[in-house]
Amino acid sequence: MSVRTIKGKTISAVIACYNESPSIPEMHQRLESTFKKIGVNYEIIFVNDGSTDDSEVVLKKICAKDKKTTAILHSRNFSSQNSFTSGMMQSSGDSVVLFDGDLQDPPELISEFVKEWEKGYDVVYGIRTKREGNKLLQLCYKLFYRIFKKLSYINVPLDAGDFSLMDKKVVQAINSLPEKDRYIRGLRAWVGFKQIGVEYTRPDRSFGSSTNNIFKNIRWAKKGIFSFSYIPLELVSYLSYFIVVLSAIALFIYLISYILLSNPPEGITTIIIIVLFLGGTQLLSLGFISEYIAKILEETKNRPKFIIKEIINDNKKINKN
Fold it and tell me: Per the CATH hierarchy, to which homologous superfamily does domain 10-214+305-312 belong?
């Protein structure tokens, strides 16, 4: 494994923001302090993903004082994954660190990421060994990551979110992928390269409240599973085999009863159970198939991943597609 040196290197911090105006100044200050402590060149890229609060005003004030800070303003909300993509395309550093704007991922951990990057690792991701906050939600997150790992056709690290440092060649590889409906942590695992995790405790939010809810979390889970697993489709086949076998057994029992007892089972209850079982199985199968069809439809539309309204302190031309 080759060893790197940070001398003369530039690190780009990309922060996806949606209604995070209270945390933006502190994020900026802590990033500046961390980069100066490490002793590395840096750029800070905030992506304002259609916030409805005063995030845009806050970012413009910061950018007016600090030319090393860039603000990308999206025309509306395009999701955190497309915000990261927008920032990654704008970045010019030798490596990129991804952050959510809520400060739950500590900027100070960059120093640990850089140490592993210097050792030759191309991707260094944060492993959430512990989360502060709702215990039930923590359990659900842990359960999802383990289900996702079992179902996925790629090796997805457990308890690792988007918070990570990626070498420039990894960023370029992810940027080159044409798909629109993105799941960055899955794409990060898919492109390969040498990867390692750094453990940390994820604190609860310092400002505001989360915009996530149970329905968004379910959609998030489906995005990951249906993007990187074919097992739901295989399950449809297995269900069809099971029903055929079960039907054959039921027919055999019916014939034996008719021959030996001359009085086969009768009644509307049996018919209702069979109809509900077959109908439920068919709907479940159609549900799985429709998820994949929806993803195909989204890709074939070929719409841009995001639309940029304005870039403040634009130091690089960005591919807006």
Answer: Spore Coat Polysaccharide Biosynthesis Protein SpsA; Chain A (3.90.550.10)
> pLDDT per residue over 231-241, tens digit each?
777 777 777 77
β pairing state of 160-167 and 123-131: antiparallel
Q: Using CA atoms, how far apart are residues 236 and 230, in angstroms rounded to an integer? A: 10
- CA-wise closest residue to 146 among 138, 155, 158, 154: 158
Distance of CA 103 to the CA centre of its chain: 17
Positive or negative, the CA dihedral 213, 144, 142, 299 is negative
Q: How far is CA 163 from CA 75, 84, 238, in A?
A: 24, 11, 37
What is the torsional sign of CA 212, 215, 218, 224? negative
pTM of the model: 0.75
Q: Which amino acid is at 96?
A: V
- How distant, in Å, are the alpha carbons of 119, 161, 256, 268 from that of 274? 61, 43, 19, 10
Q: How far is CA 3 from CA 8, 121, 196, 233, in A?
A: 15, 9, 15, 43
106: pLDDT strictly greater than 80: yes
Q: What is the pLDDT of residues 29-77, one digit of tens each?
A: 999 999 988 888 999 999 998 888 888 899 999 998 888 999 999 999 8
For the chain, domain boundaries: 10-214+305-312, 231-301
Within the chain, strands assigned E span: 10-17, 41-48, 69-74, 95-100, 123-131, 160-167, 195-202, 308-312
User: What does the pLDDT look like over 200-209, one tens digit per residue?
Assistant: 887 766 655 6
Q: Are 221 and 143 in contact (CB under 8 A)?
A: no
Residue whose structure tokens are 């990309």: 14
